[in-house]
Amino acid sequence: MSEWFSELHAKFILDFVEKQRWMYIVDGLKITLLVTLLSLILGLAIGALIAVIRTTHDQLREENVGGIGKKLLGVADGICRLYLTIIRGTPTLVQLLLMFFVFLSTCNSKVTVAVITFGINSGAYVAEIFRSGIMAVDAGQMEAGRSLGLGYVDTMIQIIMPQAIKNCLPALVNEMITLLKETSICGYIGLNELTRGGDIIRGVTFDALLPLMVVAMIYLVLVMFFTWVMGKIERRLRESDIR
Amino acid sequence: MIYVNHLYKSFGDHEVLHDITEHIEPGEKVVIIGPSGSGKSTFLRCLNLLEHPTKGQVIFDGIDLTDPKTDINKVRQHMGMVFQHFNLFPHKTIMDNITLAPVRLKLMKPEEAREEALKLLRRVNLEEKADAYPGQLSGGQKQRIAIVRSLAMKPKMMLFDEPTSALDPEMVGEVLEFMKQLAEEGMTMAVVTHEMGFAREVGTRLFFMDEGRILEQGHPKEVFDDPKEDRTREFLSKVL
Ligand SMILES: Nc1ncnc2c1ncn2[C@@H]1O[C@H](COP(=O)(O)OP(=O)(O)O)[C@@H](O)[C@H]1O
Ligand SMILES: [Mg+2]
């Protein structure tokens, strides 16, 4: 038992303390968090835009608004649907490799390539989250706003969106958790994020257990933290529904 | 006040309104009754273009609502609508529910709108609910607030779509009482309702709708006491 323990201790020194190898983990974690955060922001922006285009297109179909605006909206809606189909129908890793080796091959910042890829990828999922959040708002809310004389955009911003965002906050936190874990594939383009940090240590020390376990623990703690935050948000929202 | 000319409405190939021509004059209180699915809601919703007529015209205050060049938002500012399910904004306080539209549309300054809202709230004895949220109110209170929200826009006409149908029986009275007051003050009203007592007492004209047409109309007392059409008689025998 004590033999096993001292062996573990030696491995720990070798894996993390010697030559300051723990820095691989810390630097990797920074990159992982940075890529997750920036991708999330980009994804939210893309997602919101697409959700608004698609719901506006669906809702204005009935109204006799001007011809050219409606045609443009139709085209925009078509493009959005194509984007959603492609992004959700292909593996994220393939998208990342295509970006790195083909579409963004001239870009020399791997972080930028990762953020763009994951932002575009996440945007597709966020769009559908937003869209179902908007559609979950009772149709009577839009009618009440419009019957008071408020315009479509005004009603959307003042009345529908606040309720829609509330509806989809939990799902958005979920999306962030997925995104956090998915950035681990960035090792494929040589970006030294958390997973690759652990893997580099494994490569030099030939010890797989400790570095990869530590990496796993860090993801787990982060996910548990986000889940805890989500639980808090959900409880708050439930309370405010009754208030 | 409002002219309806050869109005048709279809959903897909299901014709819901068939060739309705009517004129509602200022100060009239039109009550609309008829079996479920006969097109009462659709007719009312065509009046403020929540539903777009398939054919025909709706002319309010000399403005053709079905003309694509018409700014429908402007017109709707002058037509209040009250819904069966209240449709208050759950994320806003009662005060904000009432002042949102007048302030956003720059018809009133925020302070002015608050004053006006408090005056209206006092009228329905709900002043102390100004900072409450809709979720904290009873159905009857919600509906009175919904009416107040419409009134805050100072409409020339009010549309009511079964305003008491979602209420517990003990709350129906307070809402009808408020509507009666409005009627007495001269508000032009179109009310879809199943409350035959209200129709008889408050209505100046009654439409009986059946299968997308106004099958019979007249003063409520006349229609109730001496219906001309078999369908009207059949319907009334069920609800009276
Ligand atoms: N948005 C809609 N899409 C399709 N059918 C509808 C829609 N709204 C109403 N209808 C149909 O139109 C008919 C009349 O509905 P409605 O005007 O609500 O009747 P009422 O208010 O008299 O009960 C019904 O058959 C209903 O199913
Ligand atoms: Mg109805």
Describe the structure.
Chain A is built from nine helices and no strands. Chain A has helices spanning 2-17, 22-60, 67-89, 92-103, 110-135, 139-147, 152-182, 194-205, 209-242. The radius of gyration of chain A is 23 Å and the shape is elongated. Chain A starts with a helix and ends with a helix. The mean pLDDT of chain A is 92. With 240 residues, chain B is an alpha/beta fold. Chain B is globular. The relative contact order of chain B is 0.17. Chains A and B meet through helix 6 and helix 7 of A and helix 2, strand 6, helix 3 and helix 5 of B. The complex binds adenosine-5'-diphosphate (ADP) and magnesium ion (MG). The site of adenosine-5'-diphosphate has 10 residues of chain B, from helix 1.
Brief synopsis:
The complex is a heterodimer of chains A (243) and B (240). Chain A is mainly α and 243 residues long. Chain A contains nine helices and no strands.
Please write out the topology.
The complex is a heterodimer of chains A (243) and B (240).
Chain A: H1 2-17, H2 22-60, H3 67-89, H4 92-103, H5 110-135, H6 139-147, H7 152-182, H8 194-205, H9 209-242
Chain B: E1 2-11, E2 14-24, E3 29-33, H1 40-47, E4 55-60, E5 63-64, H2 72-76, E6 79-82, H3 94-104, H4 110-123, H5 139-151, E7 157-161, H6 169-184, E8 188-192, H7 196-202, E9 205-210, E10 213-218, H8 220-225, H9 230-239
Parallel strand pairs in B: 3-8, 3-9, 6-7, 7-8
Antiparallel strand pairs in B: 1-2, 1-4, 4-5, 9-10
Largest beta sheet: strand ordering of chain B: 6-7-8-3-9-10
What is the terminal-to-terminal distance of chain A? 58 Å
Number of strands of chain B: 10
State the helicity of chain A in percent bands. over 70%
Low-confidence stretches of chain B: none
List the chains of the largest interface with their residue counts: A-B, 26 and 32 residues
Apparent shape of chain B: globular
Number of DSSP E strands of chain A:
0
List the defining traits of the structure above.
heterodimer; A: 243 residues; mainly alpha; 9 helices; B: 240 residues; alpha/beta; six-stranded mixed β-sheet; four-stranded antiparallel β-sheet; 38% helix; binds adenosine-5'-diphosphate; binds magnesium ion
